[in-house]
Predict the 3D structure of the following.
Amino acid sequence: MIMYVAFIAFTFFSFLLATSSPAQAQVPNSAAQEYLNKAREALNAGDFETVVKHLSSAIELVPQSAVLYYNRGTVLLMNLNKPAESVRDFDKAIELHPGFAEALDNRGMAYRQMGYFYQAIKDHSQAIEINPQGFKAYNNRGNAYRFVRDFDAAIADFTKVIELDPDLSLGYFSRGSAYQESGKYVLALSDLNKAIELEPGDFRYCGNRGNTYSLLKKYQLALADLDKSIEMAPEYALNFYNRARIFKALGKTEKAIEDYSHAILLAPNYGDAYNNRGMMYLEQRDFERAAKDFDKAVATNEADGVYHYNLGLALYMKREIQLAIERFSKAIELLPKWSKPYASRSNALLQQGRIKEAQEDSKKAKELMSEGFNPAPEASVYQDIDN
């Protein structure tokens, strides 16, 4: 958050004093200047809704200022998590100043948050064409490539970030994360070590290195890094989520449940934390608690077929067969290439004496098993760092 505040404040300052901004001819009148001063005060106080309010008033007075739209869009995106609204502001900024690379880059980040990954890549690429020496657009495009699992392209972009500024930790962190996601754990470890060397106080770097150690099954080193990351950022739920996974791998069930519970306390809508804790309750044959956790996971994301499937398992173990069948059917609807829901629904149908239907599901499950589809790799990589 501090990084965002500093960047936006600098943009305000540039708008007031610079003569080379995209809206250089649109110097605000005295009333607009007053709204900008109030926006800056609200920004420093962390009152982002009020920032937007004052910027909107300034825009009414200076409607041809691309920078004002850009500033409001940036606050909406970075601080208020309203990407769709921010896109409208970035659209206007780009309309007023078609060569506004920063607005294109930020619109790309908004598109990525909305799931429009290829549109994001297009915007970041345009920003790079306008300013090929700007590392931020390369980093942001690399993150968009990660979402479409084009790791070679992502790694190439992060390598360019490093070439542009070899003393910047961001490029090494981003490339290390991409290496981790693509299964190149030794290369990931090398980059994350370099990122930590350059910026030892960033908890995300330490956390991701811990995850890499975990993937290499070096659990004690992983725990040491995650403990340190938690010490630096005790409010960050993903820290506890990832440490819980290591405790689970070490067979420390109660510690894992405790960390999943803390992750949920910090992030009450953390579907994966509910899901994973539910799995541990299943292993303990505490089917009631498991069902409650899976039900909460489903509530966070109705479109997640894995959550529905796991809820079906818990209901089946509670002997609520018809409800279990309904959940397995929903999982099949959402993940039609996954064999497990068919196999489980087959068992449930047998319990109801529906032999022919059970045989059909069993046959389908065997056909799909050969394809090896797995919809639920447990993500352990930290969120990318936006600029």
DSSP finds 21 helices and no strands in the chain. The two ends are 11 Å apart (CA to CA). Residues 2-17 form the longest helix (16 residues). The chain has a mean pLDDT of 89.
